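Residues pack. Consider this:
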Amino acid sequence: FFFFSVSRKYYRDIDKATNMPVPDAVVSVIIPGSAVVAILFAIVLWKRVASIQLTGGQAVLRSQNGREYLLEEDQRGEEEVVARAADIQASIQEGANAFLAAEYYYMGIFMVLMSIAIFSLLSSITPEEGRTRQDEIRQGIFSTVAFVTGAITSILSGYLGMKIATYANARTAVEARKGIAPAFMCAFRSGAVMGFLLAGFGLLNLYIVITVFQKFYGDDWKGLFESITGYGLGGSSIALFGRVGGGIYTKAADVGADLVGKVEQNIPEDDPRNPAVIADNVGDNVGDIAGMGADLFGSFAESTCAALVVAAISTLGQTHDYSGMLFPLVVSAAGIIVCLFTTLVATDLKPAKVIAEIEYTLKLQMIISTILMTPVALAVALFTLPETFTLPGTDGLTSDGKTVKNWYMFVCISIGLWSGLLIGLQTEYFTSNRYQPVQDVADACRTGPATDIIFGLALGYKSCIIPTIAIAISIYVGSSLAGMFGIACAALGMLSTLATGLAIDAYGPISDNAGGIAEMAGMGEDIRERTDALDAAGNTTAAIGKGFAIGSAALVSLALFGAYITRAKIDLVHSSILDPRVFAGLLFGAMLPYWFSAMTMKSVGKAALAMVEEVRRQFQTIAGLMEGTARPDYKRCVAISTQAAISEMIAPGALVMLTPIIVGALFGTQCLAGVLAGSLVSGVQLAVSMSNTGGAWDNAKKYVEAGASEHARSLGGKGSDCHKAAVIGDTVGDPLKDTSGPSLNILIKLMAVESLVFAPFFYSCAGGNGLFFQYFNLA
C-alpha cells in the first residue's frame, strides 16, 4: 500500500478490469472491502464470546495471599449461581429491549416528520440561475433519503451495541470466576464487536449511498455531496435522543438506587434487595452503550460529510477526481485495518492478566493504534490525492483559492490523531484513581460531601485546559494548511481509530454490568473484587471515550460551520463579529448549552425523585425485603425510568432541532452563524468539565471502597462517613457525566449539520437576511 502511495503518479493509467484509473479502482475496493472485513472480524469476536456457556461445572479460581488457585466448587451451588446470573441477564435484556422499543417508536415518528420537513423546505426553494425546479426537487428527495439512511444506521448501531453488551455482561461475570484475564478478554472482545460493527456498517452504508446517488447526479458532484449531508443529520439527530433519553433513564435509576440503598439502607451497591438495581444495570446499556454508539457514529458521519462538501467545490470535485474525493472514506477504511491489528494485542497477544495491568492494557490500545495509524495516514494521503489541488476562497464565492499539497493532508490527519491521544491521556489523568487529582477528591471526603463537591468541580474546570489547547492547535494547523477541509480531516484523524475507541468505551458498561450481576448472583467477595477492578478501569475508559467524542465534536462542528458558510453564501469579507446580528447570535448560542443542560439535569432530578419515592415505598411496605426473604418489584422501577426518559427527552430535543430553523428563517444566515459559533465555544468547555467532574467523583468513591492503598484504607472504607460523602458526590456527578455532558457534544454537532442541510432554504428567506428583518425593513 505504501509502495502504491509513493508511486501514485505512475498509476494514472486505466485499469482494464474496471475501466477506471488505478488509484480509483483500488479505492473502490479498499473502502467496501475494509468495511466488510470489520463486520467479519466482529462476527469472529462474537463467536468467541458466544462460546462461553452460562452453565455450571467449571473450575473456579480463588485468591489467597495474592495468589490464585483452582477450587472445584460444589456442583449444585455453582449451577445455582450461574443460573441466577443467567436470570439476571435476561431481566436486564428485557428491560433494555422494552425501553429501546418505546424510544424507537417515538424516533420513528420523528423521522417521518423530519423527512417531510427536509423534502418540503428544500424542494420549495426558488431555483437559482443555471438550476431548474427538477434540480431542487431532486435535492430534496435525495437529502431525505440520505437522512433516513443515516438515522436507520444510527439506530442499528445503538441497538446492536446494546444487544452485544446485554449478551456479554453475565458471561464476563462468569469468566471472572476463572480469573482476571478471561473476564477482561470477554468484556473487551464484546466491546470490540460493537466497535467494528459500527465502523463497518457506518462506512459501508455511506459508500453505498454515494455510489447509488452518483448514478442519478452524474457530473453534478457538488449537488451529490450536498445531498449526502442528510446522512450526517440523520445519524446525529437519532444520537441526540439516544443520549438524552438513555442518560435520563440510567441516571434516574442510578441516583435512586444509590441514595436509598447505599446511603439510607446501608446496603452494598448492586445488592439484589434494592428495587432499582435492575433498572440501574439496564441504564448502563441504553445510555452508555446505545447512546455512545449512536453519538460516535454521528461524529464519523458528520466529519466525513463536512469534508466531502468542501472537497466537492475544490478542484478535486471539479475535475471529478474519484480517489481524491473519497480520501475521507479511505482514511476511515485504513483506520479499521489498523484497529483490527491493535485489537489482537489486547485479546490475544498481551491481555491483562492481573488487576494492575487492566488500565495499562486499555491505554496501550490508544497508543498503539495512534502510532500505527500515523504512517498509514501518510500512505493514504500520497496515494489517493494528487500532488496539489486547489480549495475555494474563504467565503466559497471568490476565485481566489488555496493550493494544497497532498502531504498537507497527512499533517492535518496526524494533528487530529495525536490530539485525540493527548485528550485521552489527560482525561485518564484527571479521572483515574491511580493519579493524584482523584485521590485529592477522595481525601476531601473526610470533611463531608461539600468539600468533595468543591474539589470535584475544581478538577473539572482545570481539566478543560489541555483539551482546549489541543483542539485550538488542531484548528490552527488544519485551517492554515487546507482551510475548512483541513479541519474536517483533523476531525477524521481523531476518529480514524473509531473501532478501538468504541471498544475501550463499551468495555466499561459491560464490566459495570458484570460487577452488578456478580453481586446479585452471590458470587462472593473474590469475584466481586475482580469485577470492581474491571469496572474502575471501565469508568476511566468511559471518560476517555467522552473526551474523544467532545474533542471530535468541536472539530466536526467547526468544519460543518465552514461548509455552512459556503452553502449559505455568507460573504466573510464584508461580515464582522461586531455586526449586531452576528454578536446577538453569539450571545444566544453561548447560552444554549446552559439552557440545554438545565433541562436535562432537571429531567434527571424529577425522574430520580420518582425513583427514590418508589424504592422507599418498597422497603417500607414489602415485608422481608431487607432480610432477603422477599423479592422486590424490579419491573415497577424499570417502568418509572422508561416513562420518565421518554417524556423528558422531548423538550431538550425540540430545543436543539428547532433553534437553527427558527433563527435561520426569521433572523437570517449571519445571525445563525453567530449562534453556531457561540454554542461551539461554550459547549466544549462545559461538556469537558461536566464529564471529567462526574468521572472523578465516581472513581473517588471506588477508591474509598477498594481500599487498595494505605491512604485509601485510612479513609474508612465502605459504610464510613467518608464513603457516604463520596457516594453523594458520585450521585451529583451522575447526570453530569452520563446525561448533560455527553449530550452537549451532540448539541453543537447537530445544530451545525442541520444548518448546513437547510442552508439553501435559509438563503431563500429574504436573501439570507431573515423574514423578521425583512418584514420590519431592518435588513
